Amino acid sequence: MMLSKGLKRKREEEEEEEPEKEALAVDTWWLDPRLPAVAQAPPAVPSNSLLDLSVLKLHHSLRQSEPDLRHLVLLVNTLRRIQASMEPEATLPSVPSPPEAPGVAADSLLASSDAALSASMASLLEDLSHIEGLSQAPQPLVDEGPPGRPSGGAPPGLGALDLLGPATGCLLDDELKGLFEDIDTSMYDSELWAPASEGLKPGPEDGPGKEEGLELDEAQLDYLLDVLVGTQALERPPGPGR
Amino acid sequence: MAGAGGGNDIQWCFSQVKGAVDDDVAEDIISTVEFNHSGELLATGDKGGRVVIFQQEQENKIQSHSRGEYNVYSTFQSHEPEFDYLKSLEIEEKINKIRWLPQKNAAQFLLSTNDKTIKLWKISERDKRPEGYNLKEEDGRYRDPTTVTTLRVPVFRPMDLMVEASPRRIFANAHTYHINSISINSDYETYLSADDLRINLWHLEITDRSFNIVDIKPANMEELTEVITAAEFHPNSCNTFVYSSSKGTIRLCDMRASALCDRHSKLFEEPEDPSNRSFFSEIISSISDVKFSHSGRYMMTRDYLSVKIWDLNMENRPVETYQVHEYLRSKLCSLYENDCIFDKFECCWNGSDSVVMTGSYNNFFRMFDRNTKRDITLEASRENNKPRTVLKPRKVCASGKRKKDEISVDSLDFNKKILHTAWHPKENIIAVATTNNLYIFQDKVN
Lengths: 242, 446
Hints:
The complex is a heterodimer.
Chain A: H1 9-29, H2 50-63, H3 69-86, H4 114-129, H5 139-143, H6 158-164, H7 168-179, H8 186-193, H9 207-228
Helix pairs in contact in A: 2-3, 3-9, 6-9, 7-9
Chain B: E1 12-18, E2 30-35, E3 41-46, E4 50-56, E5 70-77, E6 82-84, E7 89-91, E8 97-100, E9 108-113, E10 118-131, E11 155-171, E12 181-184, E13 190-194, E14 198-203, E15 206-215, E16 228-233, E17 240-245, E18 250-254, E19 266-268, H1 281-285, E20 289-292, E21 298-302, E22 306-311, E23 320-323, H2 332-337, E24 347-349, E25 355-359, E26 364-369, E27 375-379, E28 395-397, E29 406-408, E30 420-423, E31 429-433, E32 438-443
Parallel strand pairs in B: 28-29
Antiparallel strand pairs in B: 1-32, 2-3, 3-4, 4-5, 6-7, 8-9, 9-10, 10-11, 12-13, 13-14, 14-15, 16-17, 17-18, 18-19, 20-21, 21-22, 22-23, 24-25, 25-26, 26-27, 30-31, 31-32
Domain SERTA (chain A): 43-90
Region (Disordered) (chain A): 1-24, 137-160
Pfam family, one (chain A): SERTA
């Protein structure tokens, strides 16, 4: 809140109070039983990152007896965007973006001019920073220098997965595992640890592994969406590299 | 029109408010508001499946200080909660939309829909009853025929007005997903109903069959990335309709082209502004309402932050864009967190297509005059509830020092949202629904 240095002390006090009110309002938002909003349950996994929030919302939405399809589709698409932006992109080096940026992929979203890219990333950062800083996931990639490439010679597959560490892939995976306990988890295990299968691009060091991890999550989301609308009996999802 | 100063500016006055003072009852949440074609009747639907119809008093126009008040005309339970045994799901009775049919005889007809079933209701008046039967007493008991010594002809005598609503057609079992729109064709014989993935065409007389005219369900549901959010028939061309999507596109379809209108005749989409890109770009571009102008030349769409007017002859961008609450753009993260970013606001035209209106938060609603390019923000609140009190324009302070009478963005109550508004087809009378109250405002009549 802007504090005015004006003459009216009373108004300053009022304005000082407001942020507290707002913070309070946001907290009780989750608990207000009268609120008709969808995401009402107190966060099972308290987290401030946009990614975690989105996964939580998705989980909550899927838990409804008949989820709102529009809500679900928008959530899934947003989640894909978030995941895509956290995926390091091999051809990023030429981007003159601020080094603190998370490993933003130069996907179609942000692939316009450099100025536009910086502006977009600035707004992304702004958005993300509203939730009290990023999750730990992207930081290891960031620290390891532009464009977030940890080390040149890491082999694909298992090696790349080692590098993930607390990064997005495993974090997401662990959380998803916890969230979707009642779903047959054998698909996680075999898929995640399989050697790079066909359809994945060779080359980028942690590319395949990371992609696998993230693609799996996407596949999971798609699969869940499909199960949700009842068009597909519970079965193993298609492999990565769709 | 709307705004300060100028010869033709409207001053909006409070007229009436309907509904309970304390808003604790979930079933009373208003879910749709619609004037009929003459404006004499105003229908509301609520979460509890009820329809309440208000009728305008016919006042002596010469002496009136204001236009007639709206009083309750009929209340009926349109939809009941149902249970889908196959999917083990409860079907909500909440009324998603009401659409009036044009009046053809003494009775009124409307379509009301919940998530799955559309119903055609007949609302008719009874203000006389036959009296003077020979074989029946006035209370209905039968008389002994042997006591009848003279015969008389029964006559109609006036009685207290009774308004009856009866369901004439039930259009069921045609939607797998949730119905978001119904729209009556200008032929007044057919109508469309749209759910998240499909649009069906019905004949008003036929309930056991409908034609699927749009189907965007992908063969593989994993590929689903877009849903239908609203649909409407063109007001004059009975072969033309539009539907909007969660990705911010509008497709115009011509039913003469093919039976299944999966291929659009026109695609309306505005390219994204790269400087405004964020993770939430898609969510805020999702169109929550689409409405043709009365003339049929334009259509209006509502997305999370703006109202856009499209010329049907120009697909690549809207001809006018009005920012409803641009100060929320920097708050999208919080609004995503509390799910407000998914709120679906509706919009409406005035009778002459010169002003458009839509709702916002804090019980604010906004009007945009297309001619003067002026806009106004008003509030629906019981604090201004003296009839003929002129509403004071409100202003939200986005940043910086808040002026007197301004409200700062952080003080806005996001629980108080105006999602449904309606404008009388001929006069400057508007109906604005807060969570469970209906406000009626009129322009100041001197």
